[in-house]
Amino acid sequence: MTGSERTCPIRGDGGRALRAVLDRIGTRWTLLVVATLDRGGLRFGELERRLPGISQRMLTLTLRNLERDGLVSRTAHPEVPPRVVYALTATGRSLIGPALALAGWAAEHAPDLEERRAAHEARETAAHDE
Amino acid sequence: MTGSERTCPIRGDGGRALRAVLDRIGTRWTLLVVATLDRGGLRFGELERRLPGISQRMLTLTLRNLERDGLVSRTAHPEVPPRVVYALTATGRSLIGPALALAGWAAEHAPDLEERRAAHEARETAAHDE
DNA sequence: CTGGATCCGCTCTGATACTG
DNA sequence: CAGTATCAGAGCGGATCCAG
């Protein structure tokens, strides 16, 4: 739109913008949380149940980071017992597209990667044993 | 292709495939290296010069991982001094598409994220000072 | 020129226990 | 129910020196 799109978005600014994003979505749970919230807002406990293996600590930290970056909104209802609902913001939803592209690639090539990696390690082990 | 794409690729298998990929491209230099190799094979020194700030160690490790996963090919010419050329494989090139999608999102929203984060931190600091 | 080896610090992550 | 606090472990990433 600005007419200056000829630089690669990946290397554009030396990768700083991309780095900033990867530092967030690169963490173990971020994308899973975002994907889980895709269908609508959820409570803390709901999220915890839908993310097998996550600890309260990591769920809290992940949500805090997402909230800080404006990808997730937090709504606390002043009741007892407390009820807090997390939901994606417009920005948060906009991340799902690119994330899906990456996830698609992952689903398609993950078996390949593991295969190659296994083969590679086997080769190295053999070379070592010999 | 297979007709069984109704599960979300992100949460599909609990995120294992996606995790496997993020564990690789989530590292600081992987995507930068891939992007730098996009226009053709390069020598080790070339890559080092085109990736300001990377250390020899991390360049070596990154290339080794990419090679192990079959995303990058390594061609050593038995000369003196040594000459080693790294290039993207077909699989490696196929990663550029999704990566570009993510980078595009990053370029578009990174300023937003930093802004929000700054605002958030300012708010917290103020609350602390008071 | 291309890398291997080592030391070191930082952050991510998880388990556990405690609070409003 | 929804977090916070603390402790400990593991891995990434960087700087530096050395070798083929």
TrEMBL record, chains A, B:
**Which Pfam families does its entry note?**
HxlR
UniProt keyword DNA-binding, yes or no: yes
Could you tell me which Gene3D superfamilies the record lists for this protein? Answer: Winged helix-like DNA-binding domain superfamily/Winged helix DNA-binding domain
Q: Could you confirm whether the keyword NAD appears in this record?
A: no
Q: Which SUPFAM superfamilies match?
A: Winged helix' DNA-binding domain (SSF46785)
Q: Which residues form the HTH hxlR-type domain?
A: 8-114
Domain of life, per UniProt, equals Bacteria
Going by the UniProt record, its keywords in alphabetical order are: DNA-binding, Transcription, Transcription regulation
Instruction: Indicate what this protein is called per its UniProt record.
Output: Helix-turn-helix transcriptional regulator
Q: What is the lineage of its organism?
A: Bacteria, Bacillati, Actinomycetota, Actinomycetes, Streptosporangiales
